[in-house]
Design goal:
heterodimer; A: 112 residues; mainly beta; 6-stranded mixed beta sheet; 4-stranded antiparallel beta sheet; B: 111 residues; 7-stranded mixed beta sheet; 11 strands
Chain lengths: 112, 111
């Protein structure tokens, strides 16, 4: 079955510290991979996406993600977080039938 | 460009009532989607439409129907609302497997 797993429901990091949010998917072929961010009371905004090519993808707001086929993972990273990064982050996977499935999300808290 | 618009923004229903959530996009996208968002559950796909005239079930289609009226509009109908359908509903559109653009959401409370 197609699925997307974000193992961490909540993550807390100090401002200025590095960040890694985990995402794993199940799919037979290489899927289309996305990371979205949602601020409280808002809709979702795309951070970055991977379709093919270079497995390290740069996105907006200083985020990057790395696709690792052997681990079926697409983890999101940022070298130094800012208080404004506090939000909920969603990994999503697109399949050949145009369906896009989201993970349950990881809520990021930032300590001053 | 308005992007993706949804109406209404808020709605309160009684159990058994029906309603239609409206969604429209002005980006000429082929694909449109309806999701519901519940705490701790992320976004769950209800229905999607890969092109005008086609619709397909997502993860949680029971209790819902959809209509892809034309390329711009994709409506979601609750025929007989239940408290379990209390949620925030998001419509999204995209070109095939490209970036999804989301509407502002509809908050629905079913009493």
């Amino acid at each position: 079955a197609q699925s997307v797993t974000q193992p961490d429901i909540h993550i807390t990091v100090s401002e200025g510290a590095s960040l890694e949010l985990r995402c794993n998917y199940s799919y037979g072929a290489t899927p289309y991979l996305f990371w979205y961010v949602q601020s409280p009371g808002q809709g979702l905004q795309l951070l970055l996406k991977y379709f093919s090519g270079d497995t390290l993808v740069q996105g907006i707001k200083g985020f990057e993600a790395e696709f690792k086929r052997s681990q079926s993972s697409f983890n999101l990273r940022k070298p130094s977080v800012h208080w404004s990064d506090a939000a909920e982050y969603f990994c999503a996977v697109g399949y050949r039938d145009d369906k896009i499935i989201f993970g349950k999300g990881t809520r990021l808290h930032i300590l001053p | 460009n308005a992007g993706v618009t949804q109406t209404p923004k808020f709605q309160v229903l009684k159990t058994g009532q029906s309603m239609t959530l409206q969604c429209a996009q002005d980006m000429n996208h082929n694909s449109m989607y309806w999701y519901r968002q519940d705490p701790g559950m992320g976004l769950r796909l209800i229905y999607y439409s890969a092109s005008e005239g086609t619709t397909d079930k997502g993860e949680v289609p029971n209790g819902y129907n959809v209509s892809r009226l034309n390329k711009r509009e994709f409506s979601l109908r609750l025929e007989s609302a239940a408290p379990s359908q209390t949620s925030v509903y998001f419509c999204a559109s995209s070109d095939v497997l490209e970036t999804q653009y989301f509407g502002p959401g509809t908050r629905l409370l079913v009493l």
